[in-house]
Specification:
303 residues, mainly alpha, 13 helices
């Protein structure tokens, strides 16, 4: 994960991804900004926006590695010595685990859908530089929209018996830790509905083929659960990994080998990364099942 930070930044500012344009392009030249008629923003370049987003995710990554209860290394140390403890105390550990699980389930969904004639076709970018910028920004926008606003806000107003601005923002940061007495079944129904909406939005608002809806809905449900259970940092870092991290490596392969971004996903380096992620996902599923079993055993011993 951490290596993708410098890789993505180097490619954005020092490669020929943009061909005829570079990081100095005013944001007013972007299609959706042009329609807003905001010429006073012409002094801001796409490189400025990229830096703000890049630094934001770096800060979130540092926060994730340090907490909320254990550092990344402290959370993993029991596993390294052959024992087991809950991994719930660190954002990054949860992000890696659930991101890897999403990779495994995405591959399984793709295999099943291809067998019944449903293919997933990714959108093509008019320009790879602005496309990469969009991929970098969208995790923040979509997590605030789909998770914070559509899950966090309703849960707060449904279940919080007190109101203050501090409690409101703390609850949006981590719902399960700050909103007492949440009905988990109703929360899960909300998460599933928002996840399905997230999947549909990918084929309505973007150029993905219809097969992407199932994959995106699955990812939306998982990220929604992670947001509810572990907080905004863990959820947004999963989304960041599916966009910025994966495409940083893909664009690196594309740039070095002078091939298209689509062809880069067939390269051996990307294949190796996918194998590592699949193995991590299988391990993540095993750890999740183990956590569920241990939790049930503890409840049974207390009853």
């Amino acid at each position: 994960m951490i290596l993708s930070f410098p890789i993505g930044a180097y490619l954005f500012f020092n490669s020929q991804m943009g061909k005829s344009i570079d990081y100095a392009l005013p944001i007013t030249e972007l299609g959706f900004v042009k329609r807003l008629n905001v010429d006073w923003l012409a002094q801001i370049g796409i490189g400025d926006i990229f830096i703000v987003v890049w630094v934001t995710f770096l800060i979130l990554f540092v926060i994730g590695s340090m907490g909320p209860k254990k550092s990344f290394l402290k959370a993993l140390s029991p596993i390294m010595v052959g024992s087991y403890e809950s991994l719930a105390g660190n954002y990054i550990v949860q992000s890696i685990k659930w991101f890897s699980i999403i990779i495994v389930l995405s591959a399984a969904i793709d295999i099943v859908q291809q067998n019944i004639g449903i293919k997933i076709t990714a959108p093509t970018f008019e320009n790879d530089l602005t496309g990469f910028l969009g991929l970098s920004i969208s995790p923040l926008i979509e997590e605030i929209g789909f998770r914070v606003i559509l899950i966090g806000v309703p849960l707060f107003f449904l279940y919080s018996k007190k109101f203050s601005m501090g409690l409101f923002f703390k609850s949006l940061w981590n719902p399960s830790d700050n909103i007492p007495n949440i009905n988990q079944k109703k929360a899960l129904i909300l998460i599933i509905l928002v996840g399905i909406f997230f999947g549909v939005a990918h084929i309505l608002g973007e150029q993905w083929s219809s097969g992407k809806a199932t994959q995106a809905a699955m990812a939306g449900i998982i990220i929604g659960w992670v947001y509810y259970r572990y907080g905004f940092v863990a959820g947004v870092l999963i989304h960041w990994a599916t966009n910025y991290m994966i495409y940083s490596y893909a664009y690196l392969v594309s740039t070095i080998n002078e091939i298209g971004i689509t062809e880069s996903f067939s390269h051996s380096l990307i294949g190796t990364i996918e194998i590592i992620l699949v193995l991590a996902g299988i391990s993540g599923l095993a750890l999740t099942m183990l956590e569920i079993k241990i939790s049930k055993d503890v409840k049974n011993s207390l009853s």
